[in-house]
Amino acid sequence: MKKFSTIALAFAFPLAVSVPALAQEGVKTPPPALSSKCNFLPDAPDKHVVVKGDTLWGISGKFLQNPWCWPEVWGMNREEIRNPHWIYPKQIVYFDRVNGRLRLANPVEESVSGITKLSPQTRSVTNGGLDAISAIPNNLIEPYLSQPLIIEKDEFATAPRIVAAPEGRVYMGKGDKIYVRGDLKNGTSFQVFRPGTALKDPDTQAIIGYEAVYIGAVKLERTAKTEDGVDSFNVVTSKEEMGIGDRLVPIPPTPIINYVPHAPEQEVKARVVAVYGGVSFAGQNNIISINRGASSGIDIGTVLELGRYGKIVPDRTNDKKPIRLPDEMYGQLFIFRVFKNISYGLVMQVTDVVSVGDIVRTPEK
Known about the structure:
Shape: globular
Order of helices and strands: HEHHHEEEHEHEEEEEEEEEEEEEEEEEE
Strand content: 35-45%
Helix content: 10-25%
Organism: Undibacterium flavidum
Protein name: LysM peptidoglycan-binding domain-containing protein
Radius of gyration: 27 Å
Keywords: Signal
Number of strands: 23
């Protein structure tokens, strides 16, 4: 044993000092290996020219087995994920096969030789990044960026409310006037909601919020002149008729959609709370809510796996004793809207239907 240890150390020591020695000679240390689920596709192309209509998810899918691995193959840190660099049409994403990474470059014409070189450049943002490609197709989530709205238990109690309408009307639509009481907090444009379905945690059955029903939008016309007066609003849009008692919520600013798909930093174990629209099942490109939010470390762009618990079945080879089958994971969920204890996600690639109560968790690596 002593002889074996001496020989082992004799070989180990030169190897330990060889890495800095090689670095001093200009030999680069290989980049960290990607996780097993972030491998490149066997037939991944050498490059992809970005065109209008591309998405981060779609481009990633051309190179990677799992599109949510985008930040890992770019070597992005957490801050870069929160503030992603812009990617524009005509830029080139190319596969650095030596280092196992993706790179971004702009094509630069070389007039003398007549060939095209790839040269990394910084592109200035002159229009707020509106031309930049988005993480997923904008049209799939735009209607849901301001609705649905999650209301905490006591939030509706303090929200401005519709108290009356001209000529004693009970219901109002587009073009009508409404009268409102409550603290507008200097706001002028509001969305109108009414209390909706109570969302219960599938694990505890406790109510974790209310999914408010979107009614329409209103704009302030005139503020109250007396302490017991009311504020006058015009109904700008109306999805359905507004009524006395409906509540006002300030219209949120229009976001620039450029989320970077990424796995969560910490372990997430969640459940599907509801399928948006009041139906029981969801498929690809449908919207669902889960019972975890910002308080659990989830942020916009988080990608989670969808699945269901393994069934308990009798072991037919051993007196039919019960055995539990493995959990079956069948798809991916892209989180695009986050509240404190609830998040909304877009169902991406799935091989089965999504049901209320299904499990949602951090993708396995």
